[in-house]
Queue: 2 jobs
Job 1
Amino acid sequence: MNQRPEIREEELHAFIDGELDTAERGRIEAIVEGNSWLHDRVTRYRADKARLVALYGGGTSEPLPEAWLQRIETATAPRRWRPQTWGIAALAASFVLVFVGLFAWRDFIRPVRGDVVADALAVRAGAVQPDSVIAADSTKAVAAEARVMTAVLDARVKAPDLSRLGYRLAGINVYSEPARAFELRYAAPDGQTFTLYLRRSSGTPRFDQFKQDGLRVCIWQDDVVGMVMAGNVSVAEMQRLASLAYTGLTL
Amino acid sequence: MVGSRQEWFGKALIAQLPALRRYARALTGNTALADDLVQDCIERALRQWEGLRDLQRLASWLRSILHNLYIDELRRSRSRGHEEEVTEMADDLALSTPAQDGTTAIDFVRAMGRLSVEHRQVLLLVGLENKNYRDVADELGIPIGTVMSRLARGRERLRNALEGERPAQVRPIEIREMRQ
């Protein structure tokens, strides 16, 4: 008690919040354990922290006001196209359909089968042979493929540019089995491969991130497109990639 | 895809509302005011969401909007009877949360209400939202050292308020306070 070791107030709270490394935590813990006043103080701060959660943390199950939900659903519902827009779009769609021919038309009527994540990982693992492979250095071929993707996925899409995060498009694989799909292969900064598997949505919105087969996997599916990303990346890196990919997908 | 992203935003926004409402109640100490703020926050988010580049930052973006709205509200209505409003909320809380250390839920909510908004904000992000210091610093756009000093001061003031502003006992160990 006669010793006067110095602990900064901030260090004490960093200790309480688990923000210190092992060595620092051990040092502060030893001081706290050896001093009843300080120990009591830490106990009270911890109790206050726990009480904060006990008092305010329980409200998340309370039903939300219906007016809020209606307001958001109304404001974010798909915009209705005006007749003029419809006409232009129909003309453009017809042109694209003629351009890509029967090949793409066949896929419009083919139902999407199987779990998109399982299919994406099977494709990535090489269990399914691609119908065709397009090298990314062929600009015209990639541009043509974007038109095919747009037609097949029924959405205006292109290969997202992930170069801002150091990922370079290496190629596009085209599949017709088990569903008409595209695998965009990116070279990661560390030389590994990051893949983005794209196909028409099954209709159920999904967003999830998890580890499977030693890979970090992210599924992001809206009502139009299903997108499965996989690679040896951290959670934070996957979040950045997913966000960039989803926003960069739109033409 | 534009329509789809818009729908996605709507779903993501709805998914964030319970946590946002919880945060608003803890920040304001007032149920009605918190709901008004969340409603205003929804309106602003619906107007500005296209400027949000990273949907992963949605939660912190919404909290920032809510915080700004709260500051505006405080500026507009300084004369509002704060104690009475806090009491109204604390009555609800007291029903579900038993007292533990001699202080009641109402004491705790009142003590929180005496803190500055900046102190409350940091206390809630760390204590309620379980954010680490780096994330809090990023969200508030302040140095991590400022987060730490605000947290230390906020907790100390909360404790002092709970103990009835009693002067601290003689400290057998010297605690240095870092200047903010």
Job 2
Amino acid sequence: MPAIRVTANVVGVTPDPKVPLSYQWNVTLVFVGGACAHSLNRRISHPEINATTQTNTLTIPFSQIRGGELTISVTVRVGNVLLKARSEKLQVVGTNPSTAALMNMVITNDAFKKLMRLESGLRQFRTPSCPLFSGDNLGGVGICQITSPSPTDDQVWSWKENLKAGLLFYKAKEVVARAYPRHVRDGQEFKNLVKEYNDKRVAKAKPEAPLKPLPIDLPDYTPEQLERDTVRGYNGYAGGLHEYRVKVDAAGLLVVNVDAGGNKGSAVWEVISTADRIAEYDRRNIPANHRGDPAYVDDVYNQASF
Amino acid sequence: MYRRLVGLVLLFGCSLAHAEVGPRYLYQVSCAARVDRFDVATGRKTNSVDLAKRTGKVRLIPDAEGALEVCLSNRATFDRDKSVLYVLAPKLAHPKEDGTSDYRILGFSVPALTLTSEVAAGDNLDHPPQFEVRSGGVVSIDGEPPKSDLAFSKFGPGRHELVNRVLERSGDRTLVRLLTDGPLDIGVADSGTMTFVRMENLPLTTVENIHLSPGGTHVLVEEVVKGDDSRSRKKTGRLLLYDAQTGRAAKTLSEPAIIKLYFRGISPLGKVLYDLLADYRFVDLRVRFPAVSVVRTASEDFPQPAVFFSDK
């Protein structure tokens, strides 16, 4: 946060140069979101600052990055006269980071950079005096549109803190995405699909060449799949749907790649198309405000990096 | 005696002593913890309640902020004796980083939908647990998952093994898909008579568009046409009601209004609820059905809405 230096000039009274003056300062900085779109009237206050100086200047010792309406009061006793002054309705505003500043941050993941551009256009602030609150009125904010858990006051006013939270959230979703193949493998739905596949395989075999049930694996994600599913998670796995699902054929039967020896099979992941995703949301009657962006992953990858 | 209730359940609040009498109210429970009450007689929605706001000062159903990732009111099960709706609720609106969730089972009185009970249902679980409601309202956790296929060799007339998938059950009747290489092959198995009847001359349809009636006396089939891509299908609005004893279509209806809506359930009074979000419509089949529950056997973590019936 840039330093703000305040000066108080005593006018109309001549102080005794032998008597040192003591300036008592009081500073408040309050953001009231009422005038900012989608702020949900959020109110953020910097802790009140009280300071005493022997000179007539104060560099305001802000301990947090905040914006809003700044009020500065100063009191000084000159002889028997108590002098007071007050400056109010001053505005501390926010500045969006430059691309160069963002490039200086250690963000190694290109997908995350694109995601940031989609989420906020790389802006922390909608206007200098208004943080960029999310249009869905869920209280999301900033360059990474941190929504859940509810963004802290630091994340509202500091793009660096917002970015830090966004990266942590992305990493958390990466953990979820990495665990998803195991989650599906262990689920009853997949076990039923495997059983059906094998029942059919055994039933179709000729009596002279009987077949045994095939061990069928569901592979872990490739790095590309992991990244795409992580990006999906950033927007939310609405309806419990991830970016991928187990591929079945038109008849609803498991698609299996059988190895050359015919001893092992491997199920296949497929991307859930936007149309199918919307149809699933409809089938499950998910309210419109809880669906997220059905095309989120493609929307992210269509952004430019930086 | 206890009823084993698994998957998504359609239960009916009272028996049909006379054909004209039947549970008047249909309740739909969606994963957003929303319960909608419909008056089947008038075809109107009469109430819509957020269960998350019915647990008093302590929020026992979490708020879903943004995308609804987990089913907040899963495995809806209606205890008709006590007139209590049980749902499985996760403690958090998102799975934990390891993909697991913690659960509790909540009971709500019907029709007031006030909280009556809370039971822990397990922590750090990969998938939502099954549960049973025994007589007296005692909830038991970790029931077996529903059986996904039928021992087909026990059923006449052929009595030979066929690979199959159970879709729905009601009473003694089971809606079964035969996993043949040809077109969709659907039938109803009757474990009372140990017979299987195939539905004949099915229109183009999908397994998602075939529904067992209460009691399993009929099968409702929604005709579809191919959509824009090879996998997608669109409803035409043509409905065929098959007699499960003959396998033949007993009735055909044209209901273009349901094309963009989703099947939710069949009432014993013969009314079929279709809806999508705020839009809904009842189709009158003009057939009465026994007041017996229909159980879907798919054990999805995030299922489509469940419905149950009550006379309250």
